[in-house]
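I have been asked to look over a protein record a colleague put together. Alongside the sequence sits a line of tokens, each denoting a local backbone shape. Please read both lines and tell me whether the tokens look consistent with the sequence. Take the sequence as given and treat only the tokens as open to question. I have pasted the whole thing underneath without changing anything:
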Amino acid sequence: MDPVATTTLLQGESTARRTSVFMKFLMAVTGALFVLFVLMHMYGNLKIFAGQEAFDGYAHHLRTLGEPILPYSGFLWLFRALLIVALVTHAGSAYWLWSKANGARSTKYQVKKAVEASLSSKMMRWGGTFLLLFLVFHLLQYTTNSIQVNGAFESPYQRVLAGFSVWWVVVIYLLALFALGMHLHHGVWSASQTLGLTGTPKARRHAKLTGLAVALIVGVGFALPPLAILFGLVKK
């Protein structure tokens, strides 16, 4: 082979590897931000068990954070903008890596079989896509109030109760939680690898246990309010 062509090929492979490492790093960092966000969001949702005054007060407080330096709801919109940027970065990096992985599998030069992926790993692609679609539905229902289930309510507490009093809304929510749990389970482990936190067998076990713990905590914590509302344990 021409030495120049060989050098060019090696440089291209090196650049591709560096790009893949950078994309994985972006996914790890943005993923950590989302883990923090879902834990905060879960905490806020659980305030539904404290009654309307506590839940509505919490929702109102989020809109007054930063006043008078920021306008009403200013902090929320800044945080939403940050999440949107992180979401685009996370999803874009994921789809780029998946496209490269598919291309590598299709080349005739690859002879080694890939290690069989875990269930959570296999579900990352379709689970992430489903989560994106659910996020749009969730925002239209509870943020913009464009989708109204059981009527329109000014009170966040009443809006949540009205939505989760309908069985199919709860089913969609639970399916999204299942996808989120699998995403977190594999994502925490993958991010730990990317950030160099799995260098020893003990560290790998801790990373896997942490991923499982985060998935279970988030899944159960988010599932409690809609199930309690559906079965009449939380009253209007």
In short: The helical segments are 3-46, 52-64, 74-106, 119-122, 124-142, 156-163, 167-194, 201-230. Confidence is low (pLDDT under 50) at residues 4-12, 106-116. The chain has eight helices and no strands.
